[in-house]
C-alpha cells in the first residue's frame, strides 16, 4: 500500500509567502488551465504517493513558511529536448508554522509526520514576521 508523501523545496529569491504568490501570479509560470507550476529536472519516483494529497513545502529564507497542495505532475519537454517535471499546484498558499531548514539542492521527499503544521486559522491573517526574526524564533523553539 502506498502512503501520502510531500515534497520540500527551496524557494530561491522569494522573500515571503506573499512574494511567492506574486511570482506565481505571473502568466508565464501557469499551465494551460491557469494553475501555477514549478518545473524541475527530476521526476519524482513516488508520484502515486505525492498525488495522494501531498503538498510542496516552501523553504523561504532558510525557514519552511508555506505549503501548496500538489494537483498533478505534467511532462514538459524544453527546447533542448529534455523531459522535465512540472509540479502543478493549487494556487492557495497555506502558511505553516516556521521550521528551520538548511539549504539543499533540488527537492526532497518530506514525510507527513515531519512536516510543520499549518498555522491556526486565527493566525492566518496576521502580518508575517520578518524572515530573519522568524528564523531566530524557530531556532530557539518559540514558533
Short description:
The chain has 143 residues and is an alpha+beta fold. It has helices at residues 17-24, 47-50, 131-139, and strands at 6-10, 37-40, 55-60, 63-77, 83-89, 94-100, 107-110.
Structure commentary:
This protein is α+β, with helices and mostly antiparallel strands. The chain has helices at 17-24, 47-50, 131-139; strands at residues 6-10, 37-40, 55-60, 63-77, 83-89, 94-100, 107-110. Strands 1, 2, 3, 4, 5, 6 and 7 form a 7-stranded mixed β-sheet that branches. It is globular. The termini are far apart.
What is the helical fraction, as a range of percent? 10-25%
- Helix count, DSSP H or I runs of 4 or more residues: 3
Q: How many strands, which pairing sense, and closed or not: the largest β-sheet?
A: 7 strands, mixed
Kindly provide the radius of gyration, computed on alpha-carbon positions and rounded to a whole number of angstroms. 15 Å
Mean pLDDT: 89
Report the structural category: alpha+beta
Notable characteristics:
single chain; 34% strand; 143 residues; seven-stranded mixed sheet; alpha+beta
Question: What is the topology?
Answer:
Blueprint: E1 6-10, H1 17-24, E2 37-40, H2 47-50, E3 55-60, E4 63-77, E5 83-89, E6 94-100, E7 107-110, H3 131-139
Parallel strand pairs: 1-3
Antiparallel strand pairs: 1-7, 2-5, 3-4, 4-5, 4-6
Amino acid at each position: 500500500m502506498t502512503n501520502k508523501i510531500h515534497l520540500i523545496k527551496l524557494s530561491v529569491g522569494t522573500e515571503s509567502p506573499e512574494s511567492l504568490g506574486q511570482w506565481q501570479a505571473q502568466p508565464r509560470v501557469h499551465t494551460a488551465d491557469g494553475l501555477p507550476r514549478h518545473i524541475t529536472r527530476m521526476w519524482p519516483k513516488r508520484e502515486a504517493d505525492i498525488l495522494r494529497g501531498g503538498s510542496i513545502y516552501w523553504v523561504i529564507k532558510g525557514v519552511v513558511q508555506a505549503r501548496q497542495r500538489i494537483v498533478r505532475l505534467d511532462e514538459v519537454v524544453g527546447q533542448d529536448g529534455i523531459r522535465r517535471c512540472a509540479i502543478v499546484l493549487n494556487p492557495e498558499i497555506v502558511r505553516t508554522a516556521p521550521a528551520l531548514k538548511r539549504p539543499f539542492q533540488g527537492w526532497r521527499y518530506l514525510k507527513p509526520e515531519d512536516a510543520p503544521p499549518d498555522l491556526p486559522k486565527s493566525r492566518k491573517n496576521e502580518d508575517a514576521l520578518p524572515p530573519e526574526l522568524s528564523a531566530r524564533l524557530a531556532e530557539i523553539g518559540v514558533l
